[in-house]
Specification:
The protein has helices spanning 12-22, 55-67, 83-96, 118-121, and strands spanning 28-31, 71-78, 103-108, 132-134, 137-142, 145-150, 157-166, 172-178, 182-187, 201-202, 212-215, 226-229, 239-243, 249-253, 259-262, 273-276. It is α+β, with helices and mostly antiparallel strands and 291 residues long.
Length: 291
């Protein structure tokens, strides 16, 4: 059965509501243009101000289907030689797949040309953990490989893989840099990859005082000071770890979405620490070390 929400193709709320209505009566739900614009086939990204900034929205549709107990099928269309786009679509699907039914497919503009390519069709097993963020990108480990996606329209992202993997070109690598709006599916591993950072938000509590890491005055501004304060449970005291792929993490404040930052990239004792928009700089990267 083919049905639409009767809305514009980028209306996520309409899609979500309609799919929840349909789910009890079908075995699967399909997004025909999963991670690309239907008009010009341009890949989606994560810039909300961009006409094509719907990547996160369409990622969420996979969970809508799977949480309703049905399979998700994501399709994309283009030339049979557009391997990069194929990898982007398949890898995006693998970030969310529940390891059961469903799948990703590619429709060639020319029906007589087979789009099959091992770069996007190679089996990497089943998911071993949830996806997690690495800088501006995302990663998920599988039983026979790993998948990485960079949906940023402007920034490259390096993934330090923590183990050896094989690229679609046959190279053995332990680190990969993805350019904007690209992805890669890597096979194999000579060792167990590192676990993802803890998900969700956390309080950071000083042992000597029992007080919380706090953005002063609930400010959302760049340069707002970070201090210790009695723990209140406020969002200015809740921090998320975002892996940067090199063993270090950004600490992102929930209320502002900004990073814990050493002012001026200083290396001096006593340098001030405040919040600043996330740049990926080393002065915003922090490592958890057991004490």
């Amino acid at each position: 059965m083919r049905a639409t929400a009767g809305k514009k193709p980028w209306d996520l709320a309409a899609y979500t509501t309609w799919w929840k209505i349909l789910a009890p009566y079908v075995n699967g739900l399909q997004n025909e243009y999963y991670q690309q614009a239907p008009a010009d086939f341009t890949l989606y990204n994560v810039n909300p101000s961009d006409w094509h900034g719907h990547w996160l929205d369409w990622q969420s549709l996979v969970a809508v289907a799977q949480n309703a107990g049905v399979d998700f099928y994501g399709g994309m269309r283009g030339d049979a030689t557009e391997t990069g786009k194929m990898m982007y679509g398949k890898a995006s699907f693998l970030l969310e797949w529940n390891g059961k039914g469903g799948g990703f497919f590619w429709q060639s503009k020319t029906a007589s040309v087979d789009p099959w390519n091992p770069a996007w069709t190679t089996w990497i097993g089943t998911p071993t953990a949830a996806h997690y963020q690495v800088g501006v990108g995302w990663r998920r480990n599988y039983s026979a490989g790993t998948v990485i996606v960079n949906p940023s329209p402007t920034s490259a992202q390096t993934f330090n893989l923590g183990a050896s993997y094989t690229t679609p070109a046959g190279q053995t690598v332990s680190s990969v840099t993805l350019q904007p709006i690209t992805a890669m599916i890597l096979t194999g591993s000579s060792s167990t990859p590192p676990p993802p950072p803890p998900s969700g938000y956390y309080k950071v509590i000083a042992k000597h005082s029992g007080k919380c890491l706090d953005v002063k005055g609930l400010s959302t501004a760049d340069g707002a000071n970070v201090q210790q304060w009695s723990c209140t449970g406020g969002n200015n005291q809740r921090w998320k770890l975002v892996s940067m792929g090199d063993g270090y993490n950004e600490l992102v404040a929930k209320h502002s979405g900004k990073c814990l930052d050493v002012a001026g990239v200083s290396t001096a004792d006593g340098a001030n620490v405040y919040q600043w928009h996330c740049t990926g700089g080393n002065n915003q990267r922090w490592k958890l070390v057991s004490s």
